[in-house]
Design a protein that fits this description.
phosphoprotein; kinase; Heat Shock Protein 90; alpha/beta; elongated; two-stranded parallel ribbon; single chain; nucleotide-binding; 7 strands; transmembrane; transferase; five-stranded mixed beta sheet; 3 domains
Length: about 450
């Protein structure tokens, strides 16, 4: 190795910035190729999701109108102004305009056909000898049809595909500009600007529609999640309230089982052991219920220590409603018989929620609350608006939607009863619940 070669500095690697530019350029053009050959939603017509049939047919009507207007004008222009052979003019005009019908469902495929036909048509014009030809390389009907195609593309394809279409349009126009015959007026810049503007506008309209659709879907999902969360919260609240009811019965069982050997001295030893086992199981059940209740309490609090309300406090609810400005009356049967605690609590909560809805949604409306027992069922009726006749039954009301009455439905389902809610034929609203006064096991 000679001295000069030993002291020659090594060839420096290409700068990082140059490599990055080359890499990014390669990625961009590879992405453009994939975008130009892969339609976003192939086969789905424009406005396919519109509710009206005539709205869905509108793109086909518009496309057919363009074809009907542009095809004959293109053929006549090529023959009369550019001196193109009739058969060749018909073929070129058909290839340049008829794919507009395809653009309704497959605009990207239609663009490939139209773009190739436009370039081929420009090459045909090179050999034409018409004396009235003025424009190069695109004819006026071609510009109109191409702009219509840009609108269809912008409403359907991705931004990368639209950028590729715009680049191809500009590149073809500038290449053909190099072969422009003398005396012709260049229109490739006009088409490039028009196509770019239309692609941007259509893309913006599509993006706005997509955003609105996603927002509507998100609102639907949010509403469903909100309804589900409301249902779960109401179920947890019911479970917390029923804890006191069940705990009371379990406590009674525990006390009775523990005190049985002292109250009945002649009990055999086996019975004493059985009562002791019952008391232990009851205490264990109470412990498990308290553990479950601690899971159901989302706020981590200890909860209310006051006794759970029942029908004996319905009169207080009605009086509070009257003080809130709602004229209300209560018809509570004197002898309701023995009402289970779960039914007693559910009936109170149903009346409470119904009166709260009246105060919120129908302030000032006359309201009547009726509670009576018949044939083993407790009937709770809350009506605002026109009063009902005496003796009206639950089944006489029109079935309602029950919107916003999640708690009522859950409580009725819990006790095995039925709920009927909805507007009355002559105005007002009606809530009617039938709750069983005894279970099948006690019948």
């Amino acid at each position: 190795m000679d001295i000069e070669s030993r002291h020659r500095p090594p060839t420096a690697p290409p700068p990082v910035a140059r490599r990055w530019v080359v890499t990014r350029t390669r990625e961009v053009f590879q992405g453009l190729g994939a975008a130009l050959t892969t339609p976003t939603t192939p086969g789905a017509p424009l406005l396919a999701g519109a509710p009206g049939r005539w709205v869905r047919l509108l793109p086909y009507v518009v496309a057919f109108s363009f074809v009907a207007a542009l095809l004959p004008s293109t053929v006549v222009l090529l023959i009369n102004d550019y001196g193109v052979n009739g058969a060749l003019a018909g073929a070129v005009g058909t290839a340049q305009t008829l794919p507009l019908l395809l653009a309704v469902a497959r605009p990207l495929e239609a663009w490939w056909i139209v773009f190739a036909a436009d370039v081929l048509g420009a090459l045909v014009l090179l050999g034409a000898d018409g004396t009235r030809a003025e424009y190069w390389p695109w004819t006026p009907p071609l510009v109109v049809g191409y702009c219509a195609l840009m609108l269809a593309l912008g409403l359907r394809e991705s931004r990368r595909a639209l950028f590729g279409v715009w680049l191809a349009t500009g590149a073809a126009g500038y290449v053909l500009e190099a072969f422009r015959p003398a005396g012709y007026t260049s229109v490739h810049t006009l088409l490039l600007v028009l196509s770019g503007v239309l692609l941007l506008l259509a893309s913006a309209v599509r993006a706005r529609g997509d955003a609105q659709r996603r927002l509507a879907e998100q609102e639907t999902i949010s509403e469903a999640e909100r309804a589900r969360r409301t249902l779960l919260e109401e179920r947890a609240r019911i479970a917390r309230e029923l804890h006191d009811v069940v705990a009371h019965h379990m406590s009674v069982i525990t006390v009775q089982a523990d005190s049985a050997p002292y109250r009945i001295p002649e009990l055999p030893e086996a019975a004493r052991e059985e009562f002791s086992s019952i008391a232990a199981s009851a205490r264990e059940s109470l412990t498990e219920m308290r553990r479950l209740l601690s899971v159901l309490r989302s706020d981590g609090g200890e909860g209310e220590r006051a006794p759970q309300p029942g029908l004996d406090r319905v009169q207080q609810l009605v009086e509070a409603t009257v003080r809130a400005g709602v004229p209300a009356e209560l018809r509570l049967a004197a002898d309701l018989g023995e009402v289970p605690q779960a039914v007693d609590l559910s009936a109170y909560r149903i009346v409470q929620e119904a009166l709260a809805n009246v105060v919120r949604h129908a302030p000032g409306a006359s309201t009547r609350v009726s509670v009576r027992a018949e044939d083993g069922w407790l009937t709770v009726l809350v009506v605002n608006g026109p009063s009902l006749e005496e003796g009206s039954s639950v089944e006489r009301g029109a079935p309602g939607t029950g919107h916003g009455l999640v708690g009522m439905r859950e409580r009725v389902r819990l006790t095995g009863g039925s709920l009927d809610t909805g507007p009355l034929p002559d105005g007002g609203f009606r809530v009617a619940a039938r709750l069983p006064l005894r279970t099948k096991d006690t019948e």
